[in-house]
Amino acid sequence: MKKLLLTATALAASIALAHPALAAPGDPVKLGGGLSLDPIVDMRLRYEAVDQPATDADAVTLRVRAGAELKHKSGLSLLAEAEGTIGILNDYNAFPFAIVDSQRRPAFSVVADPMNVELNRLQLQYKSKPFTATVGRQRINLDDQRFVGSVGWRQNEQTFDAVRAEAALGPVSLDATYAISQRTIFGVDAGPRTEFEGDFVFLGAAAKLGPVQVKAFSYLLDFDAKEQAGALATTNADTQTWGARATGSFKLAPKATLNLAASYARQSGYQDNPVSYGVDYIAADAGLAFGALGVNAGYEKLGSNGTRAVQTPMATLHKFNGWADLFLTTPAAGIEDWYGGVSYKFAKLKALPGLNAAVTYHRYNSDFGSVHYGDEWNASLGFKLKRVSILAKYAGYDAAGLGVDTKKFWLQLEMSY
Q1: For residues 357-379, b (16+ Cβ closer than 10 Å) or e, as one string?
Q2: Exposed site from 7, 235, 242, 340, fewest CB < 10 Å?
Q3: How far apart are CA 48 and CA 405, in angstroms?
Q4: Element (H, E) at 410
Q5: With contact defined as beta carbons under 8 Å apart, do 177 and 199 qualify?
């Protein structure tokens, strides 16, 4: 299977060279013979500030993704996309792990956006109404991205060298992925953390039952021996996770909607993991939207037996357990995250179209040992001016039993075609 993936990627590269980009960014351009070309341009300029007791950081980074997707009316397509990030202001530590590189600056706090130029995606795809197959380097976002995601918040995206098949059979949908490489957010200069190789299987089967969507899933992570002996030596990374998720949306009144989500999973050692254990993942979220106002509350538990806790190394981690990113690796005692928030969309404010604001509070405790880790406030404000999206975000973590007081602020401009 690995040889098949490598052969398909090489084939995709040869086709890409034979069909260079022919148009400026914008709508797809018809080339004739059932072919069209859709240029891809995505630019993001971001300022990120970090304030901690011993260190701080100021980073201004610019990320550009550029490429094109060549499509045929039969459903076949080829997508090629490069990604580059430059550091305009480099007072930050891009690599929070031991590596000899000029971008490792331990005198500053971590901002995990290394300067980088790489191939982000290169995929062949066949897509029809009931079936989609994708092979090559690709973006994979599953469900809420708690277990597998593209880490879209960071400048360098996480992608996978994989083959993926998706099928829809009436109310039932099936999704299966086999990947041989996890391409991390740290890019091509991150040494052994540039990519993690292995045999990774993501499986899902879902069904629509009235207003409720239910899904069973399995994530099997078997890292190569060189990864277990190197960058992942202390994490016992080989795991198997089996679980289920349910989501539903219920209309309560003309302007009121109740949104519910719940997940349960059991994680244990797999393949070369020398530790025998089993720990639980539990999540529940309830949100009420009433016109422009939204409120939500939830609970998430990454369980622990005291020495091993649920880990999600392929997730979009910034989405969970607070924007200050104190819990990118689950502590050995696990974590319980109680949270609640409020949001509002200012639909009638024409001067700032799409203006929206949100505030969320988190309280963190250990799952094992009754330790109060800390509390965190998150806030965001965003709007859009024509093609440019503008976002300001804040995270403030008050440490108690884990980590240090951490404040972060972001100001971001993004434009994409």
Answers
A1: ebebbbebbbbbeebebbbbbbb
A2: 7
A3: 17
A4: strand 406-416
A5: no
Plot region of 334 (φ>0 → left; ψ -120 to 50 → alpha; else → beta): left
- How does 151-177 read in b/e, with b if 16+ C-beta sit within 10 Å? bebbbbbbbbbbbbebeeeeeebebeb
Q: What is the pLDDT of residues 278-294, one digit of tens each?
A: 999 999 999 999 999 99
Q: Is the dihedral of CA 87, 93, 94, 98 positive or negative?
A: positive
- Beta bridge partner(s), residue 416: 42
Which 8-state DSSP code applies to residue 322? Answer: -
Distance, in Å, from the CA atom of 417 to the CA atom of 234, rounded to the nearest integer, reads 42
CB atoms within 10 A of CB 291: 12
Answer yes or no: are the C-beta atoms of 138 and 124 closer than 8 Å.
no
Determine the Cα–Cα distance for residues 213 and 243; give it in Å rounded to an integer. 14
139: Cβ contacts below 8 Å, ≥ 6 apart = 121, 150, 157, 159
Q: Note whether 373 and 402 are within 8 A (CB).
A: yes
- Per-residue pLDDT reduced to its tens digit, 228-247: 556 665 556 899 999 999 99
Q: Find the Cα–Cα–Cα–Cα dihedral 141, 144, 149, 151, rounded to 10°.
A: 120
The pTM is what?
A: 0.91
Which residue in this structure is represented by tokens 């995250």?
Answer: 337
> Among candidates 94, 79, 85, which has minimal Cα distance to 65?
85
For residue 118, count CB atoms less than 10 angstroms from its CB and return exposed for 0-12, middle for 13-18, buried for 19 or more: middle
Whether the Cβ atoms of residue 182 and residue 139 lie closer than 8 Å to each other: no
Tokens 């990454």, located at residue: 302
In the chain, the amino acid numbered 333 is: A
- The amino acid at 96: P
How many Å apart are CA 408 and CA 397, to the nearest integer? 9
The pair of structure tokens assigned to 258 is: 């109740």
Instruction: Compute the C-alpha angle 321/120/23, nearest 5°.
Output: 125
